[in-house]
Amino acid sequence: MQQPPLAAFFRALLAEPRKIGAIVPSGGRLARLMTSEIEPSAGKVLELGPGTGVFTEALLKRGLAARDLTLVELETRFIAPLQQRFPDVTILQRDACELSACRAELGPQAAIVSGLPFRNMPIEVITAIVGGGFSLLERGGAFYQFTYGRSCSVPQDVLAELGLRAERLGRVRLNIPPASVFRISRRPE
């Protein structure tokens, strides 16, 4: 029998709380804000750390074709529930630090949606993930990241090193805990 998404979430949380980085799965309001700028016709979208699939569901509800969505999830407890819930979406069990090595496999991406807990990660890991993500993004593509803090969870040093900027799209106070969403994009040349 497959493990339901919430059961998988709480098992993973109990086993490795810093790796999960949340006390409950993200809510629907946060998912809507995270995906609000991604048009169904955008092209390929990459989701990092989909967990229980709340952002995945929001992207599909917006009309994004399942064939255009790829999920990258490292936590084994989430893979089977995600496959059961989203059978037509490509799911890769992989470390997001390896994104730059996946260019040939993944191809260019229009957007990246990230549920990764950057505040719990070393700066070198954040740099590898964000830099790898931008190596896949088409010109004009954006990397969407949420955080429970008020400032972007990608440190300013990393943004500067990679030639990026972060803009806050909004804050969802009714999420547990409240969360802010940031669009990270290339600085104009």
Protein structure class: alpha/beta
**Cα-atom Rg, whole angstroms?**
15 Å
What is the number of E strands? 7
Which strand order do you get reading across the main beta sheet?
3-2-1-4-5-7-6
Question: Architecture, according to CATH?
Answer: 3-Layer(aba) Sandwich
Q: What gross morphology would you assign?
A: globular
Beta-strand fraction estimate: 15-25%
Q: End-to-end span in angstroms? A: 53 Å
Keywords:
single chain; alpha/beta; 189 residues; Rossmann fold; 8 helices
Characterise the protein shown here.
- This protein is of the alpha/beta class.
- The chain has a single domain (5-186), classed as 3-Layer(aba) Sandwich (Rossmann fold).
- It is 35% helix and 25% strand.
- It contains eight helices and seven strands; from the N terminus they run H-H-H-E-H-E-H-E-H-E-H-E-H-E-E.
- It has a seven-stranded mixed beta sheet, sandwiched between helices.
- A hairpin with a 6-residue loop joins strand 6 (164-172) and strand 7.
- Helix 1 (5-15) packs antiparallel against helix 5 and helix 3 (28-35) crosses helix 4 (54-61).
- It is globular and about 40 Å long.
- It starts with a helix and ends with a strand.
In short:
The chain is an alpha/beta fold. The protein has helices at 5-15, 17-20, 28-35, 54-61, 76-85, 103-106, 123-136, 156-162, and strands at 45-48, 69-73, 90-93, 109-114, 137-147, 164-172, 179-186.
